[in-house]
Write a structure and sequence with these properties.
Strand content: 35-45%
Radius of gyration: 24 Å
Largest sheet: 5 strands, antiparallel
Order of helices and strands: HEEEEEEEHEEHEEEEHEE
Strand order of the largest sheet: 1-2-3-6-7
Number of helices: 4
Helix content: 10-25%
Structural class: alpha+beta
Number of strands: 15
Shape: globular
Length: 261
């Protein structure tokens, strides 16, 4: 997708959101082929934010810079993406996102996915592949199929999460899977959404490295269950926390436990 991102940057392609009150784009981009790394500067211009104000109380000076028309407050964050896939994990790449107030990681995901969507509609050959059923098209050429790719962000577990689970007191563990939407007999306004398998915990037989053991057990059940939900008491505290974990990768789905720098 690197050529796509470069093209979107060179053509200053923008993505409007929040009822056209905000605009996102790639402000700058650098490709380091030797280090297999791409660095993006993603920008957000938001017209709904307050005007910027500068003041000098000792001089009694107060200056407000009024936004006019489509001018918005500008936010920017760096996104570093490895172009080398994770070992034994095709289509998964390491990514580091600069933490900037006002520009959440979900906005980063939305912009990257939207740019791929733009390319999908601009280029009829983008992400095309031989049709699984084979055959020929109207021009007697091999029949092709297409898909529109998108970006998912999965956080690496932070040291805090690992420490909290290893040294806290786990109170419950559930495995959750999505269910086909099916009405419940006797209540047409209720439908199935997901199923939860609650697991019992033997606190007298816990391993020393509970996180490693849990991760292994969760991933071994990933084909059936999409998400694991762990509830535990934080060490040296009465606070109880529930965290959801992607069973396939062991990645936390709760932003507070995503590895940060």
């Amino acid at each position: 997708i690197v050529p796509v991102l470069q093209r979107m940057k060179d053509t200053a392609r923008t993505y409007s959101l929040r009822s056209n009150t905000a605009t996102m784009l790639i402000g700058d981009m650098a490709v380091n082929a030797a280090q297999q790394m791409v660095t993006l500067l993603l920008r957000l211009s938001d017209t709904t934010t307050p005007n910027s104000v500068y003041s000098d109380p000792t001089a009694g000076q107060f200056d407000e810079h009024l936004k006019v028309g489509s001018v918005g407050s500008d936010f920017g964050c760096h996104v570093i993406i490895s172009t080398a896939p994770e070992q034994n994990q095709p289509n998964i790449y390491t990514c580091a996102i600069e933490r900037i107030p006002g520009l959440s990681f979900d906005l980063v995901r939305r912009l990257l996915s939207k740019l791929l969507n733009f390319e999908y509609h601009d280029d009829p050959a983008f992400f095309s592949y031989p049709h699984p059923a084979g055959g020929l098209d109207a021009n007697n050429q091999p029949r092709l199929d297409r898909c529109c790719p998108h970006v998912e962000l999965r956080g690496r577990p932070s040291d805090t999460l690992i420490t909290d689970i290893n040294t806290g007191r786990i109170s419950s563990l559930s495995l959750i899977k999505a269910e086909p939407v099916t009405p419940i007999a006797g209540a047409p306004y209720l439908t199935k959404s997901e199923s939860e398998l609650k697991l019992s915990i033997d606190h007298n037989n816990l391993p020393a490295n509970l996180w490693a053991s849990l991760s292994q057990a969760i991933q071994q059940n990933a084909q059936t269950y999409n998400t694991a939900q762990v509830r535990y008491r934080v060490p040296n505290s009465n606070r109880t926390v529930t965290v959801e974990i992607d069973t396939a990768t062991g990645a936390p789905l709760t932003e507070m436990y995503v590895l940060s720098f």
